[in-house]
Amino acid sequence: MKLIAAVCSRLVIIIAFMSIGTTGAGPTDALAIQSTTCTATIDSNYSLHIPVLASKSLFIKTDFVYEHNPAFPALIPFKLTNVTPLQSWGDVCAVSTLSSDLIIHIPDVILSDGISRMWVEMEYSQILSSDESAYFVVTNYGVMTNAHQPLPNPYLAEPLYAISHFDSSQSDSTPYGPPRNSFTVDASMEPIVYGGPINIITLASTKRNLMWQVGTDRVSCVYKEGEKWNSLAVYQALADASNNLYPAIPNSNFRAFGESSAVGMNITSMDNYLKGLFGDNYGERMGNGAYSLVDNNNVLYACYYKSIYGFALIDPVRPSAGITIRYKLDDVINVIDPSAPSGTKLCGLVMTYDGHLVIGLTNGVAIIDRDLNSSSKQFYRFADNEIVSNSIAVDENNGIYVASNYYMRKLIWTGSTLSGDEKLGAWSCPYDNSGSERPPIVKFTNGTGSTPTLMGFGSDNDKLVVITDGAKQMKLVAFWRNEIPAGFSSRVAGQIQVTCGFKSMPEWIQSEQSVVVSNYGAFVVNNIPQTVPTDLQNKSNILQISLMGPAYPTAYGVERFQWNPSTHQWYSVWARSDVSSTSMVPIHSQSGNMAIINGYRPAYGWEVLGLDWNTGDTAHHTIFGDANLGNGAYAILQFLEDGDMIFNSFCGPLRIHY
Asked: In terms of Cα–Cα distance, which of 577, 574, 576, 637 is closest to 606?
């Protein structure tokens, strides 16, 4: 079998790697192909060439060759044949990386046909290696099926789920998804890893059988082999960071809240209930651990109270030994910006494609080394009247995209300098907000509620970054990412009114969620109910989303859009005003071809709905009922390879098996 056939399916990839003895003329040698200086290649003789392999400050060029081992026929082993040191590496591109636990991540491999591409992970094999020979075994891989996908970031633990919003482009799109059917689920009977209140995402690990749970109170190492879902180790991060100002919460308190319901409650009764379970200052727990990531050394970076932590397993071979602090930076805001305005907070955390941490503050953006050495920090400060309330997107050339409540910006990381210089490709562009009127519920500012999402990759005609604006009746806005094309005069490539299919437009159509993107398709939700009682306005966000739906009016309305790269315009594909999305981040399932949301409707209680990406018809329905475990407060939905749902509930992530 020729290696070119590998693009047909994941199964064929394995066969192709192993079919060394196949006869017949092979495709053109990939080593003769003109490619980027960082891109790995594999030729028809199954020789793998990695032009740049980075490990911290060390850069090397390496060559491998496939060697079938009859004693281990299921393995895909590559023997290391050459190592050449490189004095330095200055190009801005996605290099391959070698982690401290000897895992090689190759973000882009051109196959021997010169066209097909894939990403590959290989792990050092002690069993196959000897004093004379080093072998690495393929442990994970994926076909880069088309140019519409963002390039995997080699410094993240995995291409998927190693960062909030799934990847560096912040797409919220996953290859996996649920079956097309209707299911009634008793969430109290499903396995859960407790934490919160609010658990934004369960992050990937470099170990395929482990994940990292990140709640507002704690981080946990989660075992997920087979259908397992249990915590192996816990670190009470918020209690540690705040010196017990926010003490650890017993698991029994989370279970009590999760199995109860907000039906029939009011502001006073729910406020008292939350105080009894989570402390009088429960509302101040919001935002801790909100944005986090795991790097290729399996270090989990997350923000708690006034500190940034780098957590690691004490013993990677025995995760139950516990979690330790590998790195920590205290008093972060004062370290980054000693003159920061009162109330400045940490609000974002992402990774550049050369392995630096990007830290979002409500008043600007900082970059720092992954060892959290304060002497390495750089800071780009915004105007005093600007507030950033969401995270950041990064492209493969280290363009950094961040939106305040007034401006959409692109900053440039050169590898040594964080710059807003237009000569280097940086830009800023104003967009509409709600002025002096603040949304009555769910949202944090008068500007966008979106983390910027990148759209258009590789050979795609239009390279965009998209958000929903802050207008009372929001618009979907696309900005040109790079140079404004000839014939266009505005940084805004296009914008379109969001109606969600309402026959009569409500006062507010607004979202606190990022735009879901798949290829040139986009999906947005409305998080504002048509009526919001005055006594619920300006309350704690945790209190609001605990009551919204079961006790007070819920939000309705979603809409699917498409960007036309030929006409450079948006158009609406479909809209539904009868479905609810309260505060959970919606996602796109590639395998299910659906947009997926979490909300509350009186006839079903809390539910997960899958809406056909092309038609908007209901394709999947998970009914949780009235119990609070069905409330995915401010978190994001996830699915595993086997179709199981990770439902990041108010009380911790559940694993739902269909």
From this structure: 637
| pLDDT score, position 17 | 34
**C-alpha distances in Å from residue 363, one per residue of 60, 308, 340, 343:** 39, 17, 8, 10
Give pLDDT, residue 110: 80
β-pair partners for 242: none
Dihedral in degrees, nearest 10, Cα atoms 369, 375, 380, 382: 120
Give the pLDDT score at 115. 61
Q: Which of 632, 594, 554 is nearest to 181 (CA)?
A: 594
Select from 406, 368, 373 the least CA-distant residue to 360: 368
- CA separation (Å) from 484 to 275, 290, 307, 335? 52, 33, 39, 37
HSE-up (13 A, CA, CB side) for residue 646: 33
Token reading at 53: 């392999």
Distance between CA atoms of 304 and 237, rounded to whole angstroms?
A: 7
With b for 16 or more beta-carbon neighbours within 10 A and e for fewer, the 531-566 pattern comes to ebeeebeeebbbbbbbbbbbbbbbbbbbbbbebeee
Question: What is the model's pLDDT at position 641?
Answer: 87
416 CB-contact burial (10 Å; exposed 0-12 / middle 13-18 / buried 19+): exposed
Position 37 scores a pLDDT of: 59
The tokens of 536 are what? 């619920």
The set of residues, in sequence order, having a beta carbon less than 8 Å from that of 633 and lying 6+ positions away, is: 197, 198, 542, 545, 546, 582, 583, 584, 649, 650
The low-confidence residues of the chain, meaning pLDDT below 70, are 1-37, 88-94, 113-115, 144-148
Domains and CATH numbers, the chain: 3-144 (no CATH), 173-656 (2.130.10.10)
* Structure confidence at residue 28 (pLDDT): 26
Residue 85 to residue 303: CA distance in whole angstroms: 36
